[in-house]
Amino acid sequence: MSDSIEIQPVSSPVCGSIRPPGSKSLTNRALMIAALADGTTTLTGVLDSVDTQVMANALGQLGILVETDFANQSITVQGAGGKIPAAKADLWCENSGTSIRFLTALCAIGNGTYRLDGNERMRERPIAPLVAALANAGIEATCELTNDCPPVVIKTNGLNADVIEVSGAISSQYLSGLLMMAPAAQCDITIRVVGELVSRPYIDMTLEVMRSFGAVIEEPEPNQFRVKATGYTGREYDIEPDASAASYFFAVAAITGGEVTVEGLHRNALQGDVGFVDALVEMGCGAKWNTNSITVIGKPLKGIDIDMNTISDTAQTLACVAPFAEGTTRIRNVAHNRVKETDRIQAVVDELQRAGINAEEHEDGMTIHPGSPQSTTIHTYDDHRMAMSFALLGLKSPGISIADPGCTSKTYPHYFEDLERLCRGVQ
Ligand SMILES: O=C(O)C1=C[C@@H](OP(=O)(O)O)[C@@H](O)[C@H](O)C1
Ligand SMILES: C=C(OP(=O)(O)O)C(=O)O
C-alpha cells in the first residue's frame, strides 16, 4: 500500500449500510477455546487480519490443527481436548495484545517450554501482571528482559492451582486469558481480580463465549470467578461483525448528518463497543436499534463529558467526531489507552493539533475543542485506530492525508475501500 492516502471530502450527508468484517476479539477468543475443546469447531464470519492470523499460526505451532479458509471467513479447528501437543514453541505475536495475553495463559496448561514475543511496540506493552499471576500459581513464568514486557518464557508441566489472583488495572486481557484457559486446567479454579478492572465488557464477552462452548462459571462476588474444570465442547460458532470497526461508520453518519446502518450488530451484541452508539446519541444523534442492525442518524452535535473506560477502543473515534460538535468534549478514564498500539492519548492530541484542532492532553484522557481541520498528513504510529479514526477528519475538510494506511491490516485490511464504498455509494 502507498505511503499515504488522501481522503476526499464528501459533498453531501452519507447514507448507506455496511457490514464490517468479523470481530477480532471474538475470533481470537473462539480460536483459543476451540483449540482447548474436545472435537471439531467450525468458526464462520471470522476476521482475516494480522491479529487473527498471528493467533491461528501460533495455535498451529502449538500442535493444534487449524485450517483457515479466510476467503470464506471460515476456520476449522480440531480441538486437542485441553492438551497442548507441542512441548516447545517460539510464538510470534506481532503487536496483537489479545494473542500474546491469551496464549501466555494458554501455555500454562502445556507441558514444556514456550516463548512468546512480538514487535518493537509489543516489547513495550506490559505483561508482568499476567506473568506474576502465573508465577504465583506455581508456573515458571518470566519476562525475558527487565521491563515487565514481552518476550515471555513459560516453563510448565501443567497448572495445578485452585486460586489465581491477577491485576486488571492495565488491561482486562490478562484476566480473559486466565478465564479461558481455566476449564482445561486440572481442577476447578477461582480467579480473583485484585484492584481495579478496566474494560469490563470484554470480560462479559469472554464469559459468554466460554459458556457457548460448555464452560461453567460463577461470579459469587464482583470480579471473582469460579471456573469448573469441565473442558469445552467443539461446535459451529458464528462471529459477530466487529463493533469497534463499526464505530467509524457510525461516526460518518454523525459528522456528515447522514444515516448509516451497520448490519449484523444489535443492542445485545457480545461486544461492549456497540455502546459507542449511546455516546453519539448523547452528542445529539438519533439511533435505531433493530434485531440485526443498528442505524445512526446524524443530527447537530454537542460536546459531551464522557467516561470511556469500558469502550476505550472507540475513544479515538469519538475524538475525531468531537471537533464537529458545538462545545468542548472531555474524554475520561482511558489511561489504559497509553499502553496500546501507541500512546493513544498523546498520539490523538498531537494529531488533532497537527490538523489545527485545539486539544489538551490529560493523564486519563483529553479535551477537544470545536474546529475545522486544516490540510495536513496525519501520523499514525503503526496504530490501525489512528488511521481509521483520523480518516473521518478528511471526509469533512480537504487535504487530509493518512500516513501508512496499510497499518489497518492489524484488524481491518480493507478499511479504506469499505469507507470509500460507503461514502461514495460505490458497490
Ligand atoms: O479482550 C479483548 O479482546 C480486548 C480488550 C481491550 O484491551 P484492554 O483490556 O487492554 O483495554 C481492547 O482494547 C482490545 O482491543 C481487545
Ligand atoms: C488495543 C487493541 O488491540 P490489542 O490490545 O489486541 O493489540 C485494539 O485493537 O485497539
UniProtKB/TrEMBL annotation:
Q: Does the keyword Cytoplasm apply?
A: yes
- UniProt keyword Cytoplasm, yes or no: yes
Per the database record, which ranges form the Enolpyruvate transferase domain? 12-419
**Active-site positions, per UniProt?**
313 (proton acceptor)
EC class, as a word, reads transferase
Q: Which UniProt keywords apply?
A: Amino-acid biosynthesis, Aromatic amino acid biosynthesis, Cytoplasm, Transferase
The UniProt entry's GO biological process terms, in alphabetical order, are: amino acid biosynthetic process; aromatic amino acid family biosynthetic process; chorismate biosynthetic process
Q: For this protein, what is any one GO molecular function term? A: 3-phosphoshikimate 1-carboxyvinyltransferase activity
| Gene3D superfamilies the UniProt entry points to | Enolpyruvate transferase domain
Q: Which positions does UniProt annotate for 3-phosphoshikimate binding?
A: 24-25, 29, 171-173, 199, 313, 340
EC number of the protein = 2.5.1.19
Q: Where does phosphoenolpyruvate bind?
A: 24, 97, 125, 173, 344, 385, 410
One GO cellular component term noted in the UniProt record for this chain: cytoplasm
The record's subcellular location field reads:
Cytoplasm
Q: Which Pfam families does the annotation name?
A: EPSP_synthase (PF00275)
The family line of this record is: Belongs to the EPSP synthase family.
Q: What is the protein's known function?
A: Catalyzes the transfer of the enolpyruvyl moiety of phosphoenolpyruvate (PEP) to the 5-hydroxyl of shikimate-3-phosphate (S3P) to produce enolpyruvyl shikimate-3-phosphate and inorganic phosphate.
Matching HAMAP family, A to Z?
EPSP_synth
Subunit structure of this chain's protein: Monomer.
What's this protein's name?
3-phosphoshikimate 1-carboxyvinyltransferase
User: What's the encoding gene here?
Assistant: aroA
